[in-house]
Design brief:
Strand content: 15-25%
Radius of gyration: 23 Å
Distance between the termini: 38 Å
Bound molecules: flavin-adenine dinucleotide
Number of domains: 3
CATH architecture of the largest domain: 2-Layer Sandwich
Number of helices: 9
CATH superfamily of the largest domain: D-Amino Acid Oxidase, subunit A, domain 2
Largest sheet: 5 strands, antiparallel
Structural class: alpha+beta
Shape: globular
Order of helices and strands: EHEHEHEEEEHEEEEEHEEEHEEHHH
Length: about 375
């Protein structure tokens, strides 16, 4: 969804930094960003607090679907011959000068080249496989508040603060699913597992959200959640290769990993195949399309013979659920089904549809572990 973004300054000190942000954008090839006075900001986004001092408009910013995008990559990879193995932890392994042998929870897997993209565990896996790592993961938690769909008309752009050194700060933005989202925080922690939320931080987020977009005040909240970024001591991504050992480590993708995934993949392909040899996306590949689940495309409930609506909050049809449970990459858990279809993600958080869902999905998730891949 092409939303555009506004970097907002809330006082004269922040406004003084905008010129530098604009220059950096231009150096990075974004040449259509422009400085706006407060009147122009409010003309574009009347819901923003009138206390805004100034802003930068970045017209080319998009909001994307964070679930269907990586699923589409997997779908295309599998359709073009990749083998997906889920619930399969790499425990250790080694390179014998010719081939890699990985010891995994599901037995031995061999390969010519290894790309370690284990996120929060990237440094630990580096150590297990090569004895050392160029980076140390320092998990950075981000908590979010997702507002009810009644707030969707309050803003149209991504509303950003003037960025700091560690993160781009608290963002207010519409989502492609018809909500408004406030977050994320940037909290350093030791734990690689603890993605708990806390009420005090969420309260601070709602206060900040209402200061930026006063219409959010007292609006119902649909969901709250947190995620952990695989941050490191470095601001840059940590992509290192060892051509002698046919090993690439893609670590520290601390933020913007969703937007940058294809660029990173291309970069890694160039490392493995050689810049001169790598041909880029080949037209011979097939490009299956993942089912759209955003509000900016036609949804399945608007089409005939969809089997009826199962999740009424998010308008998810029986046909969408059946398709997610089958096909080349069937969902393997309720969490997967949620992200594949939006089921239970709405205002009631599954209160009304979970009973029907448990009947529909009966027998599907028990295949979660132990799929038979040996014949592929
Ligand atoms: C709070 C927050 C805000 C974000 N904001 C943005 C944003 O604004 N824009 C954007 O583009 N992106 C954003 N992101 C996404 C962020 O960039 C991602 O966290 C990043 O893409 C990490 O991707 P990754 O592939 O390196 O790791 P992950 O997505 O974590 O993938 C790593 C995978 O490796 C697996 N794994 C780990 N260890 C092993 C092992 N031993 N064996 C087998 N498998 C293993 C894990 O199970 C996991 O599936 C945000 C994320 C968070 C948490």
């Amino acid at each position: 969804m092409k939303s555009g973004a506004l970097v907002l300054a809330w006082n004269t000190e922040e406004a003084a930094l905008l010129e530098g942000v604009l220059n950096k954008a231009r150096i990075n090839g974004v040449d259509n960003a422009e400085l706006l006075g407060s009147d122009s900001v409010l003309a574009r986004e009347p819901g923003v607090s009138p206390s805004v001092e100034a802003g930068i408009l970045i017209p080319g910013e998009y909001i994307i679907d964070p679930w269907t995008t990586p699923f589409a990559y997997i779908l295309q990879a599998v359709d073009n011959g990749a083998q997906l193995i889920r619930n399969c932890e790499v425990l250790d392994g080694g390179f014998d000068g010719n081939r890699w042998r990985l010891h995994t929870q599901m037995g031995e897997i061999c390969g010519k080249t290894i790309v370690n993209c284990a996120g929060l565990y990237g440094d630990l896996l580096d150590q297990k496989l090569t004895g050392a790592s160029n980076f140390h993961i320092r998990p950075r938690k981000g908590q979010f508040v997702v507002y009810d769909k009644s707030t969707f008309s309050l803003c149209h752009s991504i509303l950003l603060p003037v960025p700091g050194k560690r993160s781009k700060g608290i963002v207010v933005c519409p989502t492609v699913f018809g909500n408004v989202l406030v977050g994320p925080t940037a909290e350093e922690q030791e734990s690689r597992e603890d993605s708990s939320i806390d009420s005090q931080t969420l309260r601070q987020l709602t206060i900040r959200g209402s200061q930026i977009l006063p219409g959010l005040d007292q609006q119902p909240i649909t969901a709250t959640y947190a995620g952990l970024r695989p941050a490191t001591d470095h601001t840059e991504y940590q992509i290192h290769s060892d051509s002698n050992n046919h090993y690439v480590s893609v670590g520290g993708i601390r933020s913007t990993g969703l937007s940058a995934a294809l660029g990173i993949a291309e970069f890694v392909c160039e490392i493995i195949q050689g810049k001169e040899t790598y041909q880029g996306a080949n037209e011979c590949y097939s490009w299956p399309i993942a089912n759209p689940i955003t509000e900016i495309q036609e949804r399945d409930w608007q089409k005939p013979d969809n089997g009826g609506i199962v999740c009424h909050c998010e308008l998810v049809t029986r046909r969408e659920i059946d398709q997610a449970l089958s096909g080349p990459v069937p969902v393997a858990s309720l969490g997967g089904l949620k992200r594949r279809t939006r089921v239970t993600m709405g205002r009631c958080q599954g209160f009304y549809c979970t009973a029907a869902l448990s009947e529909i999905t009966a027998g599907h998730f028990c295949n979660d572990i132990g799929w038979n891949y040996s014949d592929k």
